[in-house]
Amino acid sequence: MTGYADFEEFVVARRDALLRTAYLLTGNRDDAEDLVQSALIKVVPKWSRIQDRPEGYIRQMLARESVNRWRGRRWREVPTEVLPEPMHQDADLADRIGLLEDLRSLSPRQRAVLVLRYFNDLTEADTATALDISVGTVKSHTRDALARLRNQQSEQEQAAAAP
Amino acid sequence: MDTLHDRLAELAQDAPRGGVPAAELWARGRRAHRVRVAAVAATVLVVSALGTGIGVRLVDGDGNRAHVRPAASAGVRLPIEYPVGKALPNLGETPGPLAAVWLVPRVGGGRPTAVGLVAESGRFGTLPIVLPAEPGDPGNPDPLTWVRVSLSPDGRRIAYPGPGAVGANEPADVIVRDLVTGQEDANAIAGVRLGVGAWIDATHHLGYYSKAGGVNDANGWVWEPGSAPRLVQHYSYVGAFSRPYLGSAFVGAPYKDNGLEVHISGDGPYSCSPPTLNQARTGSSQPGRVAVPVLCDVLYIGNEFVLGHWKDQRDHNRTVVALDVRHIRIPTSDSEPAQPDTQFDDPALRRVVVTAGAPEHVSLATDLVGDALKTQRGAS
Prior knowledge:
The structure holds 2 protein chains of 2 kinds.
Chain A (H helix, E strand, L loop, with lengths): L3 H23 L2 H15 L3 H4 L3 H16 L21 H14 L3 H11 L5 H8 L3 H27 L2
Chain B lengths: L3 H9 L9 H39 L19 E4 L14 E7 L4 E2 L2 E6 L5 E3 L7 E2 L14 E2 L5 E5 L12 E5 L5 E4 L5 E9 L2 E8 L2 E10 L6 E4 H5 L16 E3 L2 E3 L15 E3 L18 E3 L3 E7 L6 E7 L27 E3 L5 E5 L1 H11 L4
């Protein structure tokens, strides 16, 4: 199989980037690893056909799989009997946690649209192709998702400002 | 204020990094694909069989149905016994997939003969390949110290050192022959001496190579059909495969386990030659060793079959190439009768049976044999 060397080179060079996309899509490190690993295994039989554009193809797989696999449920939440102790948080950490919470409130498809558009910098047309939806749907999901994030941020700021 | 892109990028820094080696992903993808292809083929076969049955029934009536042969190789049954001393036919260039290959050393030294068992027909015969010569040793009943023929798990390909090879670490090249098409590839890497290898799946033939400084356990090479052989880091590459491969990590490393001593004298999984019949655990308990469920001439096939080979100490004309050792205990002396050994019934307690004697260095098509035996729903 002559494609293995290319595959190995791609995995070494681009897996971490795929993991970052998958992490934003799933909101969970384990799910991100699982998602990327599954996608990489699935592309092996097709490698000779996609090796000139593997990243776009795999990113598309990640996005679609994240919507399908996690459709109907929120991001994985781990129940615990003991509440964690509140600890000092710096502003960056607080922002990341806040953003994570905000993303959690979105539907899987809204989240996928947001990640592809604003993290992977795909155009509306490319995002529509990746998710197999219309450009109009991409626009409406983007609009709704951004509005929701703005509202939540506003609520958080008000809560933080309250005495 | 940061853009949403910046915030997402910052959040993405919490993502995990790295993961399973690329070789393992590749192997899993290949395996999954093969399973899917096999499932589709099986479905087609079932549909075809049903269609054929219905068609025959319509034409000939119920009493004259066509017999549909099972897909598995009908010739593989256990035990496989070698007809010692009988003249064997030449199997020709394209015998088809083999269930087993082993070597018959020539008395007084010289080039050994490779004998194969054709999976489809169950026929024995010699293979028209020229192996390197080894000097004879009148005092040693096993004069073959390094010449090997390894058979791929699907039985389709054999690999062996070229006839010009003169030693374990000095093969001139490695020849791989496709037993279905007859195509032969002589594999070599300029400036590198390829050592004898073994198949770790149907399409990966792996071995060691030596450089000026000698053989290093990390110096591996791998060959896949349709490509040139290439050098790899042996352990990291092997670690990606589920099929165990011992390689020379065990060369000349006698070890004791549970009071039983095992001597491993060769450089592959087909070369265990303990001085006496023994049972031994796998090497998993050894510090620093790769956990392997298989050693030497004994092969686990899935979770169902364990094959070994042995020579009947009381009847030297009877040589068993492969047998199911789940329910028997091979006698450790001439006077001891074979008796049940329930250890093999519990996978967690399975032991490896290491036997001395001919046939030499049997290589079994594990996947092919396993599929055939499963189809037969049992063995022995």
